[in-house]
Amino acid sequence: MLFKELNTLHIYLKSISAWLAFTCIVGYFQMTYTFEIANLKPYYFIAPGVIGLLFGIMTGRIILLNHKLKGFSIRDPLTHAFNHGYYKQILNEWSNEKATFSLILIDIDHFKNVNDDYGHKVGDDVLVRVSELVSETKRVYDVFARHGGEEFALVTPRTELKEAYDIALRLCKVIEGASMPSDIKVTCSFGVAQFRVGSDTADSLFERADKALYESKNNGRNKVTKEQPVS
Q: Is the pLDDT of residue 16 over 90?
Protein backbone atom coordinates (compact mmCIF):
# COMPACT_ATOMS: atom_id res chain seq x y z
CA MET A 1 0.00 0.00 0.00
CA LEU A 2 2.82 2.42 0.87
CA PHE A 3 4.56 1.69 -2.46
CA LYS A 4 1.31 2.38 -4.32
CA GLU A 5 0.84 5.70 -2.51
CA LEU A 6 4.45 6.75 -3.15
CA ASN A 7 4.12 5.84 -6.83
CA THR A 8 0.95 7.94 -7.09
CA LEU A 9 2.68 10.89 -5.40
CA HIS A 10 5.67 10.50 -7.74
CA ILE A 11 3.43 10.65 -10.83
CA TYR A 12 1.65 13.78 -9.58
CA LEU A 13 4.92 15.53 -8.68
CA LYS A 14 6.44 14.79 -12.09
CA SER A 15 3.34 16.05 -13.92
CA ILE A 16 2.99 19.19 -11.82
CA SER A 17 6.72 19.99 -12.05
CA ALA A 18 6.72 19.62 -15.83
CA TRP A 19 3.66 21.81 -16.31
CA LEU A 20 4.86 24.43 -13.82
CA ALA A 21 8.18 24.69 -15.64
CA PHE A 22 6.47 24.92 -19.03
CA THR A 23 3.84 27.52 -18.10
CA CYS A 24 6.30 29.69 -16.15
CA ILE A 25 8.84 29.68 -18.99
CA VAL A 26 6.15 30.52 -21.56
CA GLY A 27 4.77 33.16 -19.20
CA TYR A 28 8.20 34.68 -18.68
CA PHE A 29 8.90 35.08 -22.39
CA GLN A 30 5.40 36.36 -23.01
CA MET A 31 5.73 39.00 -20.31
CA THR A 32 9.18 40.13 -21.44
CA TYR A 33 7.55 41.16 -24.71
CA THR A 34 4.89 43.07 -22.77
CA PHE A 35 6.89 44.55 -19.91
CA GLU A 36 10.48 45.54 -19.38
CA ILE A 37 12.39 42.93 -17.43
CA ALA A 38 13.10 45.44 -14.68
CA ASN A 39 9.36 45.94 -14.19
CA LEU A 40 8.49 42.26 -13.81
CA LYS A 41 7.00 41.45 -10.41
CA PRO A 42 6.97 38.03 -8.72
CA TYR A 43 3.17 38.01 -8.55
CA TYR A 44 3.05 38.19 -12.36
CA PHE A 45 3.89 34.49 -12.28
CA ILE A 46 0.90 33.52 -10.13
CA ALA A 47 -1.40 32.95 -13.11
CA PRO A 48 1.10 30.75 -15.04
CA GLY A 49 1.85 28.90 -11.82
CA VAL A 50 -1.82 28.20 -11.12
CA ILE A 51 -2.36 27.07 -14.72
CA GLY A 52 0.67 24.79 -14.49
CA LEU A 53 -0.58 23.33 -11.20
CA LEU A 54 -4.04 22.61 -12.60
CA PHE A 55 -2.71 21.07 -15.80
CA GLY A 56 -0.19 19.02 -13.78
CA ILE A 57 -2.93 17.58 -11.57
CA MET A 58 -5.12 16.78 -14.58
CA THR A 59 -2.22 15.12 -16.40
CA GLY A 60 -1.37 13.08 -13.31
CA ARG A 61 -4.95 11.86 -13.03
CA ILE A 62 -4.96 10.86 -16.72
CA ILE A 63 -1.68 8.92 -16.31
CA LEU A 64 -3.00 7.10 -13.22
CA LEU A 65 -6.25 6.26 -15.01
CA ASN A 66 -4.30 4.82 -17.94
CA HIS A 67 -2.23 2.72 -15.54
CA LYS A 68 -5.41 1.47 -13.90
CA LEU A 69 -7.03 0.60 -17.23
CA LYS A 70 -3.87 -1.25 -18.31
CA GLY A 71 -3.99 -3.18 -15.03
CA PHE A 72 -7.59 -4.21 -15.76
CA SER A 73 -6.57 -5.52 -19.19
CA ILE A 74 -3.89 -7.90 -17.87
CA ARG A 75 -5.36 -8.92 -14.50
CA ASP A 76 -7.86 -11.61 -13.60
CA PRO A 77 -10.84 -9.71 -12.13
CA LEU A 78 -11.44 -12.21 -9.33
CA THR A 79 -8.00 -13.10 -8.02
CA HIS A 80 -6.03 -10.08 -9.34
CA ALA A 81 -3.33 -12.45 -10.57
CA PHE A 82 -2.25 -11.85 -14.15
CA ASN A 83 -4.74 -13.23 -16.64
CA HIS A 84 -4.25 -16.07 -19.11
CA GLY A 85 -3.51 -13.78 -22.05
CA TYR A 86 -0.71 -11.93 -20.28
CA TYR A 87 0.76 -15.16 -18.94
CA LYS A 88 0.88 -16.66 -22.45
CA GLN A 89 2.47 -13.46 -23.76
CA ILE A 90 5.24 -13.67 -21.14
CA LEU A 91 5.74 -17.38 -21.82
CA ASN A 92 6.09 -16.79 -25.56
CA GLU A 93 8.40 -13.79 -25.15
CA TRP A 94 10.78 -15.58 -22.80
CA SER A 95 10.74 -18.69 -25.00
CA ASN A 96 11.63 -16.62 -28.06
CA GLU A 97 14.46 -14.93 -26.14
CA LYS A 98 15.88 -18.36 -25.22
CA ALA A 99 15.98 -17.30 -21.58
CA THR A 100 16.60 -19.55 -18.60
CA PHE A 101 13.33 -19.94 -16.70
CA SER A 102 10.96 -22.53 -15.28
CA LEU A 103 7.20 -23.01 -15.21
CA ILE A 104 5.23 -24.14 -12.17
CA LEU A 105 1.62 -25.21 -12.69
CA ILE A 106 -0.65 -25.17 -9.64
CA ASP A 107 -4.02 -26.92 -9.39
CA ILE A 108 -6.36 -26.77 -6.38
CA ASP A 109 -7.18 -30.32 -5.29
CA HIS A 110 -10.82 -31.45 -5.40
CA PHE A 111 -12.01 -27.94 -6.19
CA LYS A 112 -15.24 -29.22 -7.74
CA ASN A 113 -16.16 -30.66 -4.34
CA VAL A 114 -15.69 -27.22 -2.78
CA ASN A 115 -18.15 -25.68 -5.23
CA ASP A 116 -20.62 -28.57 -4.84
CA ASP A 117 -20.49 -28.72 -1.02
CA TYR A 118 -20.09 -25.05 -0.10
CA GLY A 119 -21.30 -23.10 -3.12
CA HIS A 120 -19.58 -21.02 -5.76
CA LYS A 121 -19.20 -18.00 -3.47
CA VAL A 122 -16.98 -19.98 -1.10
CA GLY A 123 -15.25 -21.49 -4.14
CA ASP A 124 -14.40 -17.98 -5.34
CA ASP A 125 -13.13 -17.08 -1.87
CA VAL A 126 -10.84 -20.12 -1.96
CA LEU A 127 -9.46 -19.04 -5.34
CA VAL A 128 -8.76 -15.58 -3.96
CA ARG A 129 -7.14 -17.00 -0.81
CA VAL A 130 -4.83 -19.32 -2.75
CA SER A 131 -3.90 -16.44 -5.04
CA GLU A 132 -3.05 -14.28 -2.02
CA LEU A 133 -0.85 -16.99 -0.52
CA VAL A 134 1.10 -17.53 -3.72
CA SER A 135 1.50 -13.79 -4.27
CA GLU A 136 2.81 -13.32 -0.73
CA THR A 137 5.22 -16.28 -0.95
CA LYS A 138 6.63 -15.98 -4.47
CA ARG A 139 9.64 -13.85 -5.32
CA VAL A 140 8.94 -10.29 -6.39
CA TYR A 141 10.04 -10.89 -9.99
CA ASP A 142 8.11 -14.16 -10.53
CA VAL A 143 5.06 -13.86 -12.79
CA PHE A 144 1.94 -15.34 -11.19
CA ALA A 145 -1.16 -15.85 -13.34
CA ARG A 146 -4.51 -17.59 -13.35
CA HIS A 147 -4.33 -20.16 -16.10
CA GLY A 148 -8.04 -20.91 -15.94
CA GLY A 149 -10.60 -22.33 -13.52
CA GLU A 150 -8.79 -23.59 -10.42
CA GLU A 151 -5.42 -23.77 -12.17
CA PHE A 152 -2.65 -21.19 -11.79
CA ALA A 153 0.81 -20.74 -13.29
CA LEU A 154 4.01 -19.31 -11.87
CA VAL A 155 6.73 -18.35 -14.35
CA THR A 156 10.10 -18.08 -12.61
CA PRO A 157 12.86 -16.19 -14.47
CA ARG A 158 16.55 -17.11 -14.16
CA THR A 159 15.50 -20.29 -12.37
CA GLU A 160 16.62 -23.83 -13.07
CA LEU A 161 14.59 -26.95 -12.33
CA LYS A 162 15.87 -27.71 -8.82
CA GLU A 163 15.28 -24.17 -7.57
CA ALA A 164 11.81 -24.06 -9.14
CA TYR A 165 11.04 -27.41 -7.49
CA ASP A 166 12.06 -25.97 -4.10
CA ILE A 167 9.81 -22.95 -4.69
CA ALA A 168 6.89 -25.25 -5.47
CA LEU A 169 7.55 -27.32 -2.33
CA ARG A 170 7.47 -24.17 -0.23
CA LEU A 171 4.18 -23.06 -1.82
CA CYS A 172 2.69 -26.51 -1.28
CA LYS A 173 3.44 -26.39 2.45
CA VAL A 174 2.24 -22.79 2.82
CA ILE A 175 -1.12 -23.55 1.20
CA GLU A 176 -1.61 -26.78 3.14
CA GLY A 177 -1.01 -25.03 6.47
CA ALA A 178 -3.00 -21.86 5.77
CA SER A 179 -6.43 -20.95 7.07
CA MET A 180 -9.13 -21.04 4.40
CA PRO A 181 -12.69 -19.72 3.99
CA SER A 182 -15.27 -21.75 5.95
CA ASP A 183 -12.35 -23.63 7.55
CA ILE A 184 -12.05 -25.85 4.48
CA LYS A 185 -8.94 -27.99 4.19
CA VAL A 186 -7.34 -26.95 0.89
CA THR A 187 -4.29 -28.41 -0.78
CA CYS A 188 -2.74 -28.02 -4.23
CA SER A 189 -0.88 -30.21 -6.69
CA PHE A 190 2.14 -28.89 -8.59
CA GLY A 191 3.96 -29.65 -11.83
CA VAL A 192 7.39 -28.16 -12.55
CA ALA A 193 9.39 -27.96 -15.79
CA GLN A 194 12.39 -25.96 -17.00
CA PHE A 195 12.66 -24.33 -20.41
CA ARG A 196 15.21 -26.16 -22.54
CA VAL A 197 17.14 -23.62 -24.57
CA GLY A 198 17.59 -24.72 -28.16
CA SER A 199 14.84 -27.32 -28.31
CA ASP A 200 11.84 -25.99 -26.40
CA THR A 201 8.83 -23.87 -27.27
CA ALA A 202 6.25 -22.36 -24.94
CA ASP A 203 3.86 -25.19 -25.84
CA SER A 204 6.34 -28.02 -25.27
CA LEU A 205 7.35 -26.51 -21.91
CA PHE A 206 3.71 -26.31 -20.86
CA GLU A 207 3.09 -29.92 -21.92
CA ARG A 208 5.89 -31.20 -19.69
CA ALA A 209 4.78 -29.10 -16.71
CA ASP A 210 1.19 -30.27 -17.27
CA LYS A 211 2.33 -33.91 -17.40
CA ALA A 212 4.20 -33.45 -14.13
CA LEU A 213 1.10 -31.86 -12.60
CA TYR A 214 -1.05 -34.85 -13.51
CA GLU A 215 1.50 -37.17 -11.98
CA SER A 216 1.06 -35.25 -8.73
CA LYS A 217 -2.71 -35.58 -8.98
CA ASN A 218 -2.58 -39.28 -9.85
CA ASN A 219 -0.18 -40.03 -6.98
CA GLY A 220 -2.42 -38.73 -4.21
CA ARG A 221 -2.44 -34.94 -4.74
CA ASN A 222 -0.92 -32.32 -2.42
CA LYS A 223 2.38 -33.13 -4.07
CA VAL A 224 5.07 -31.52 -6.20
CA THR A 225 6.35 -33.38 -9.26
CA LYS A 226 9.12 -32.15 -11.52
CA GLU A 227 9.78 -33.24 -15.05
CA GLN A 228 12.38 -35.90 -15.67
CA PRO A 229 15.66 -34.20 -16.63
CA VAL A 230 17.16 -34.89 -20.01
CA SER A 231 19.53 -37.84 -19.74
A: no
